[in-house]
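Tutorial, part two.
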Amino acid sequence: MKPRALAAVVALLAPLVLVSCRGDVDVSAGSDGDPAPTTSTLPPPPAADPRTDIYAATAAGMFSPTVAGVPTRVYVPNSESNTVDVIDPTTFKVIDHFDVGHQPQHVTPAWDLRTLYVDNDLGDTLTPLDPHTGQRVGPDLPVEDPYNLYFTLDGSRAIVVAERFRRLDFRDPHTWQVVGSVPIPHRGVDHMDFSVDGKYVIASCEYSGWLVKVDVEKMQLVGELEVKGQPIDVKLSPDGKIFYVANQSRDGVSLVDGDNLKELEFVHTGKGAHGLYVSRDGRFLYVTNRGEGTVSVIDFATKKVVANWMSGGSPDMGGVSADGKQLWLSGRYNREVYVLDTSDGSLLATIPVGTGPHGLSIFPQPGRYSLGHTGIFR
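Running the prediction step on this input gives:
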């Protein structure tokens, strides 16, 4: 990481006292030129190796004081049945089930970690949840077309991804009034991630094969890149240099230079590459291949697939457990949730839920603040 970027990370870490527990996540690995095995364990990272990446505040145990006393739950929005299922991750059992607005797509942690929002896309509302109780709190908030929801690095703005209207709506995260709107010239804008300094986002346009670059401060479209196929989830690499973009119909992941808006290379993973999740130790990227029921593991250091795990069904969106030992994924077309062991990729549980489970969120997770989606923490 460049000295300036590292200094920025150190400055951001100063306000909070966080405790780190390292060496918690291993994944399967294969040798160059050979197929990646489905089971095999890498040694843990050296304990003395310092974390100097953008996810430095998200290692196991590094919880914000804000979430003290919040029980861990898994929230599953069922898009086709307009409900949310709540799962106890210690028993793998659904412990609550309630109605929300029309077509809930994702459950998004607020920037300040005090509220969870169910993004009711066609209902034009956000349903707030209290993470202490796991229950609805207060009335639904009127917000037009919240397919997805993000927050700027400083928490001053919410960014509502209004997919069907082809725009990004910048809103006050307290009053939810629109303060600016960016029209997107391509169909299907839906997922995004921020640059290291938070000055711009790279957003995917699923139905048109384009990525767009939006200046967050000016609230302006500043660039476009055609990657073809169906770009879906977007995740910035730990060193802050490369945006990884899952491409569903190209069956892999584009590596994109966000500063220069250029596709550097493409890594094949599997049919229907969809969701992207960073391991708790920041070494690996988990890629859900929804079309074939697998998860591929990319090593950030080598940019190669080092393992392929079987989940079955249709793995979609989800997240990594707070200790990094489990990967939780919604089964979009199978009315189920999958839990994988990140030490060897074995399937620990398949949990029945409602129809059309989508943007599953595990909460709480380590980190100082949330940038949105199902939980992008820094």
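The domain at 3-36+49-363 is CATH 2.130.10.10 (Methylamine Dehydrogenase; Chain H). In part three we will examine how such features are distributed along the chain.
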